[in-house]
Amino acid sequence: MGDTPVVPMNMLKSLDLIEAFYKPIAKAGVVPLSCGGDHLMTLPIMRAIARERPVGMVQFDAHTDTGDAGYGGERLHHGTPFRRAVEEGLLDPKRTIQIGIRGARASSDYSDFSHESGMRVIYIEEFFEIGVDKVIEEARRVIGDGPTYISFDVDGIDPAYTPGTGTPEIGGYTTHDAQRMLRGLRGANLVGADVVEVSPPFDPSGNTALVGATMMYEILCLLAEARTGK
Amino acid sequence: MGDTPVVPMNMLKSLDLIEAFYKPIAKAGVVPLSCGGDHLMTLPIMRAIARERPVGMVQFDAHTDTGDAGYGGERLHHGTPFRRAVEEGLLDPKRTIQIGIRGARASSDYSDFSHESGMRVIYIEEFFEIGVDKVIEEARRVIGDGPTYISFDVDGIDPAYTPGTGTPEIGGYTTHDAQRMLRGLRGANLVGADVVEVSPPFDPSGNTALVGATMMYEILCLLAEARTGK
Amino acid sequence: MGDTPVVPMNMLKSLDLIEAFYKPIAKAGVVPLSCGGDHLMTLPIMRAIARERPVGMVQFDAHTDTGDAGYGGERLHHGTPFRRAVEEGLLDPKRTIQIGIRGARASSDYSDFSHESGMRVIYIEEFFEIGVDKVIEEARRVIGDGPTYISFDVDGIDPAYTPGTGTPEIGGYTTHDAQRMLRGLRGANLVGADVVEVSPPFDPSGNTALVGATMMYEILCLLAEARTGK
Amino acid sequence: MGDTPVVPMNMLKSLDLIEAFYKPIAKAGVVPLSCGGDHLMTLPIMRAIARERPVGMVQFDAHTDTGDAGYGGERLHHGTPFRRAVEEGLLDPKRTIQIGIRGARASSDYSDFSHESGMRVIYIEEFFEIGVDKVIEEARRVIGDGPTYISFDVDGIDPAYTPGTGTPEIGGYTTHDAQRMLRGLRGANLVGADVVEVSPPFDPSGNTALVGATMMYEILCLLAEARTGK
Amino acid sequence: MGDTPVVPMNMLKSLDLIEAFYKPIAKAGVVPLSCGGDHLMTLPIMRAIARERPVGMVQFDAHTDTGDAGYGGERLHHGTPFRRAVEEGLLDPKRTIQIGIRGARASSDYSDFSHESGMRVIYIEEFFEIGVDKVIEEARRVIGDGPTYISFDVDGIDPAYTPGTGTPEIGGYTTHDAQRMLRGLRGANLVGADVVEVSPPFDPSGNTALVGATMMYEILCLLAEARTGK
Amino acid sequence: MGDTPVVPMNMLKSLDLIEAFYKPIAKAGVVPLSCGGDHLMTLPIMRAIARERPVGMVQFDAHTDTGDAGYGGERLHHGTPFRRAVEEGLLDPKRTIQIGIRGARASSDYSDFSHESGMRVIYIEEFFEIGVDKVIEEARRVIGDGPTYISFDVDGIDPAYTPGTGTPEIGGYTTHDAQRMLRGLRGANLVGADVVEVSPPFDPSGNTALVGATMMYEILCLLAEARTGK
User: Fold this and answer.
1) Which of E170, E174, E202, E208 to mutate to test the interface with F (most CBs of F within 10 A)?
2) Do E10 and A204 touch (CB under 8 A)?
3) Which of A215, C212, F127, F221 is least crowded, fewest Cβ atoms below 10 Å from its Cβ?
4) What is the pLDDT along chain F (230 residues), one digit of tens a residue?
5) Mean pLDDT, to the nearest integer, of D38-48?
6) Residue A89 C-beta-side C-alpha neighbours within 13 Å
7) Distance of CA A106 to CAs A67, A109, B53, D15, Å?
8) Is B28 exposed, middle or buried (0-12, 13-18, 19+ CB in 10 A)?
9) Nearest residue to F177 (alpha-carbon basis) of F131, F217, F146
């Protein structure tokens, strides 16, 4: 394989390659901010940075991504990363909050594991009912002071803002809501973050990529501040 | 005509064909959920299901669609279905509410009939002023317990969410607002519904079709629940 | 109807309105160059300019448009204008040539009338076999010196050049081929022309509209030259 | 130069041409409503209408546009019009309010001049915190009874509504918010207005142009009412 | 796995599933015409229909698809199906012709195997030099009377006609050229065919899908004729 | 100006900046291959590399770009670079050939200077009449052995291949034609080249950018070969 560029022809191997790439980064004490790509990519990143002690998570998403075997019996796909992460002891479900869950296409199978394992699930109905400030409060309560990962799936946002994604679900929050929630996490003990599921070919206006890049900028500000202690 | 497939080369005949198609459906006691297409299609559906007793209606729309002769003197087009339906005794204007009316291109001619016949018109300004909960309350008051039809024109929603429609008007409600209003109609005495004016070629992102399909899903839940008595 | 703007809500009436519009134009000795729009529009134009003596025609098209009743029994639609024109004595089939006919979706029913009435049909296979120069020669032989109409349906051109049209058929000629054929008609006795079936929403690049406009320019040069005798 | 059509091949000369065009308009007492185009165009318009006494301004925008030399040392570009206008005595910064300022790409250099000169800057965070009604109140307080210009940059609105613009910034207000703010300016002493930065090629859905046109319509209503005294 | 719908989350398993699907089809003596999708899908189809005796092939393509390990050392991806097929004894390279090979991105590694194994490679330069008739002649000479598979990758055609594909290469043949070549294969001993690499999201005009469907229609005519002996 | 990034806010200064950038490149004996952008950019490049002795040129283009003052009296815009280059002694018109000139929007003013100064103009009609091989022959005859610049405007190609450009003209040559012409220039004494007028926002399919990049690759091969003497 050597110096050949790697593209996802073999997903299982990709997972190994991603993990191998992040391990020295984690060892060096770097807090990685990644972008993608399929939400499954968060799993190998967690394998690289959370093996020693499980992390908490603030997940912005329309889907829980805690499903089990599916798509022909596969246990590893974009609907399962967080069940696998809990099973592997990488993710602490009690310190995990999922914000914006919804969707006509979702079955309860997908959220059962979230509930059973003790994750805090904020369905979009509750989001609109309690409002952004209360959601921030709840997120801070759930993650506490422990090491925490932010996983930002752009399909948590309404597809009017981010049509360029693979499994859009209507009726989400706005980009401004998302910015406020991210800013509400200032001072949290962050050990990594990602922005995922940006797929430019589905959005001829280019807006989805702009949203993804701006969310990364917001998160970068959080990470920089955490590092410099300001 | 026989077994030839029918496309709308002759609109007047199309109206007859649509009515003929829905009559046995109505007779069998089926509650139809339809999608389109030009808003005029609601007229022949009402002719099939409301001849015996007029229905009430919750209409989501940027336009009242109660205009009179226009477009060269035509009395039947996408701006007139509900005036015709009232005249033909199919629609009870006192039990009709129209939600989201607005538009720089609209003249007052279009809404005069709505007001004169006794329909409840919620202009977009009032919508934002009183909020979704009060709009639901008002809708339930207007329709009461009588047989009711839901007609959902996707241009009632803001065109940031549904650009793929023929006569977009900016400044509408969100898809989440629409979902909440539909859910607010649980338990109503529903005898039919439609989602109209979805036109995919105008929306290269594909989002409009997704919105239309999800609204149909929301309505389907209402209809199923009504049938099973849950 | 008065001064209301007219749009095609009632197709049969539209035909009358188009004919009425063109009659004084024809009477004034003006040679009209029109653009559309559905190919059926050529029929009322011919009714206005060819009632006294039938015209010949050079038709650029992927379809013969000489079908009979279809689309639910309708006799008037975009697949029938030239059968109707022959039946009404407006179009002389012996002086008519159709260039570029093809298509996986076409049945022989559509071309039967062309052949039986004596039109010269150049299928796309023959077009590529004999080449543009021979096609021009054949067109001039067919139309002779009599009054002739040019009807240019942009779907005669390959849809790589004109994707913005309602019934594209792959494997057509290039825009350059079309320009050469039009220029090959210099000196013909032209009494009218049109460019039809341009539908911009189907072509986000805007190229189809540019092709349509340029073809109108080419025809305008022919008409101007014919008038000034140069 | 005579009657040659003018396009922006030489920007400095364009500024002179725009100013020369608006001068007789201003002299005739006409209140101009313009559309563009690069925000720099507001400067020559102000040169034509505000030389005798400076105007106040309500500016809807994601950017202050009060930067200084940039882009290779240029003092005149789309990021500087309002600093130049203040320096030239055309714009009264004490009577200027800027609504919706934000953006990951903006440096504080751009807003320093706004603050130092005494403009009222409503960042998007404050906008969402105090709400539309308070923003209107504040705008009316700032402009008072003096002559006032409305400059509406469509990038003030969220790019989900107006993706067709050159420097989009996510997290803005809705079109409905904008409509309400404009209507909140009824009765103000308006001497001119513009809607700028609409760029259709960046928005395949066509929605941005519709938003721009509707905002012009809203402003036109304000201007007409002001004139007729109703 | 049972009756769960299968999507390509695990490519290796997909290959098995495809092969399993085609085996009973092949056993029943059916000649399959398939569409896709990644060119790798041809490999499992060949495994199902060519295990007993290798097939010849007419391949329309911009790329030879006879590369070896790549993309991180993978031996199975869209650039390798025909090397694998030769190695597995499914494809007879001496009876294989590849038409339209080109591309600035291609290295000679990809074509080396084609040459070494004895395939006939018609680079696009030769295609334009000798013309469609000679290419047909050469194809018929290569495949002879033995069992033959047609694999039609739409990127063989110029991307002006088929922009909706994953690895477009400019400077290809036209759709008409492709139609003529397919028709030139009448009477060949065909045992299967496919049209691959159609990817609608990359082509907002929809033309690529139309081209793909029409090529399938052309091939279907060949297969039907072969069966009925006409 | 210092280290500020430079964008075209002041076109005249941009010309100076471009020239200043290319001067040390030219001094170092580097043969530049540039991409753009407005065709005017070729002028400052020529100022940097051709001051000592005028160059010949092979220009692929739908327009001669030898117009004079226009667009409001400007002498420097995308329609004038080659008149200016001749006047400044940078371009030898007797060693210049322009290939593909056409367009309904062009006036003869634009080509007069080309003819009067002795350039060889191959209109698109002649191109199709004599064919690619003769055009290559003619180009080599015109440029001879002297230093030569290749300027490739993508609008020379038909807009079915390159819709993403500012002034498309239908009826051009194919990308394959262009590739053959470029390859026909092997061994010429090349001192610089550019590919201009690629504008991705006008082409949602992305094909125009691919065509531009591939043409640069073709030219790069010519330049590399010229350098290495192979």
Assistant:
1) E170
2) no
3) F221
4) 233 444 456 778 889 999 999 999 999 999 999 999 899 999 999 999 999 999 999 999 999 999 987 766 788 889 999 999 999 999 999 999 999 999 876 667 778 999 999 999 999 999 999 999 999 999 999 999 999 999 999 999 999 999 999 999 999 999 999 999 999 999 999 999 999 999 988 888 889 999 999 999 999 999 998 877 65
5) 97
6) 3
7) 10, 8, 39, 57
8) exposed
9) F131
Say yes or no: D146 contacts chain A, CB-CB below 8 A. no
Q: Does E39 reach chain A within 8 Å, measured CB to CB?
A: no
Average pLDDT, chain A: 92
Tally A–D CB contacts below 8 A. Answer: 47
F160 and C176: CB-CB below 8 Å? no
Give the residue ranges of DSSP H helices in chain E.
Answer: 11-27, 42-49, 81-87, 109-117, 124-143, 175-183, 207-228
Q: How far apart are CA B196 and CA A160, in angstroms?
A: 19
How do residues B99-141 score in pLDDT, each as one tens digit?
Answer: 999 987 666 777 899 999 999 999 999 999 999 999 999 999 9
Q: Is the peptide bond before B37 cis (omega within 30 degrees of 0)?
A: yes
Separation of CA A188 from chain center: 16
Closest chain D CA to residue B201: D205
State residue C2's pLDDT score. 35
Q: Is A163 on the interface with B (CB under 8 A)?
A: yes
Reply yes or no on whether the pLDDT at B6 is more than 50. Answer: no
F71/D5 touch (CB, cutoff 8 Å), yes or no: yes
Probe site for chain E from F133, F186, F214 (most E CB atoms < 10 A): F214
- Nearest-5° angle of CA B5, CA B10, CA B12? 115
Quick check: D72 pLDDT over 90? no
Partners of chain D (3+ Cβ pairs below 8 A): A, B, F
Distance CA F122, CA B94 (A): 74
Nearest alpha carbon to residue F13 among D12, A24, C37: D12
Q: Which positions in chain F touch D9 (Cβ < 8 Å)?
A: 11, 71-72, 74, 76-77
* CB within 8 Å: E71 and A17: no
Residue with tokens 């050597």: A2
Nearest to D174 by CA among D193, D191, D158: D158
> Best residue in C132, C173, C176, C218 to probe F by mutation, most F CBs within 10 Å?
C176
Q: What is the pLDDT of residues E59-76, one digit of tens each?
A: 999 999 999 877 767 888
**Which residues in chain D have their CB less than 8 angstroms from residue B169's CB?**
214
Write out chain E residues lying below 8 Å of A70, CB-based. Answer: 4
Q: Which residue of A has its CA nearest to D202?
A: A205
d(C-alpha C64, C-alpha C87), whole Å: 15
pLDDT at B106: 65
